[in-house]
Amino acid sequence: MAAALRVLFAGTPAVAVPSLDALIDAGFDVVGVLTRPDAPLGRKKVLTPSPVAARAEELGLPVIRAAKVDDEAIAAIAALAPDVAAIVAYGALVPARALTVPKHGWINLHFSLLPAWRGAAPVQHAVIAGDDITGASTFLLETGLDTGPVYGTLTETVRPEDTSGDLLERLSHSGAVLLAQTLSAVDAGAAVPVPQEGDITLAPKLTIDDARVDWQQPALAIRRRINGVTPEPGAWTIWDGARFKIGAATLRSDVTDLRPGQVRFTGGGDAAAVVGTGSHGLELLRVQPAGKKMMPGADWARGLANREDVVFE
Questions:
Q1: Secondary structure of residue 206 in the 3-state scheme
Q2: Residue 41's pLDDT is what?
Q3: Residue 284, exposed/middle/buried by CB under 10 A (0-12, 13-18, 19+)?
Q4: 118 near 147, Cβ under 8 Å?
Q5: What is the dihedral of CA 167, 171, 173, 174, to 10 degrees?
Q6: Mean of the pLDDT values across residues 299-311?
Q7: pTM of the model
Q8: Which of 27, 78, 98, 293 has the fewest beta carbons under 10 Å from its own?
Q9: pLDDT band at 306, cuts 50/70/90?
Q10: Is the pLDDT of residue 1 over 60?
């Protein structure tokens, strides 16, 4: 019986954990894990292992913590003698000198239908752009940004109410299956990567400025942006001189008499906060005023039912 394919797994966030589990469940010999160093989390800034590091330690796997794939990390990887490296949202570029360490190279699971949305935030940009269909791809890593030939793809419908978090959660599980299938094909000598074809779009990491709502935009575009930047970096606007976060919103095409940014409150059993946009109204479903926790928009509206002077900047 042939020895199991020796796999180095590289990944950092929670969306990469299902892929690690899938490779273990499929019987691959995961010889070690490469992940980003422990990071300070919470108000007390407690150093905390990445979700992938935490899962690897539960599984008893060797863990290489590295902020980048430098000479020290490459030496540690080479010492594990992997046949292939599987990478899912590791969070740093892999330099050319590292690509040839595993004999089958590095196979990346990317959450888009390449060459659409190359970059760090493919799902977020797909939601913001209003794509109806997205998906995931496995491809052979090259030095270019997500430019390598593709082994396999899957598709996923983008639902109107999907946040990027919702979509990533689904893709993390379906993509894990795709990654395991791709490595099985590589192990069997049956995998043939195909050069990417089609229109190229880029998906750079989103900044906090990308998450600010522009109330001059149409309501649909604003809702897509809110969904696309949820949970991170989180949509926001300015109210009363402070940052006001928006967790969810829904279209109110029946409201057309509010100017962009103007808020109308209703109280009682049908309490609501509706904001004017460049087209029609947008009802706020989840909000977080400065200094408070995220709350239903209706609760915020009840507290301000008599206000007529609230305008978002």
A1: coil
A2: 83
A3: buried
A4: yes
A5: 130
A6: 86
A7: 0.94
A8: 293
A9: confident
A10: no
Cβ neighbours of residue 17 under 8 Å, at least 6 residues apart? 11, 51, 52, 55, 172
The first and second tokens of residue 169, run together, are: 């959660």
φ, ψ dihedrals at 251, nearest 5° = -70, 140
What order of strands is seen across the sheet that includes strand 84-88? 63-65, 29-35, 6-11, 84-88, 106-110, 133-140, 150-157
Contact predicate 221/249, CB 8 Å: no
Per-residue pLDDT at 179 exceeds 50: yes
C-alpha span between 123 and 203 (Å, rounded): 8
| Residue 101 Cα distances to 78, 98, 194, 214, 309, angstroms | 6, 6, 22, 47, 63
Q: Is 13 helix (H, G, I), strand (E, B) or coil?
A: coil
Phi, psi (deg, nearest 5) at residue 31: -85, -15
Cα torsion 210, 212, 214, 219: sign: positive
**CB neighbours (10 Å) of residue 59?**
13
What pLDDT shows up at residue 2?
58
DSSP H or E stretch at residue 89: none
Matching residue, tokens 């394919």: 5
Nearest to 187 by CA among 127, 112, 104, 250: 104
User: In the numeric block, which tokens belong to residue 81?
Assistant: 């003698």
Average pLDDT taken over every residue of the chain: 95
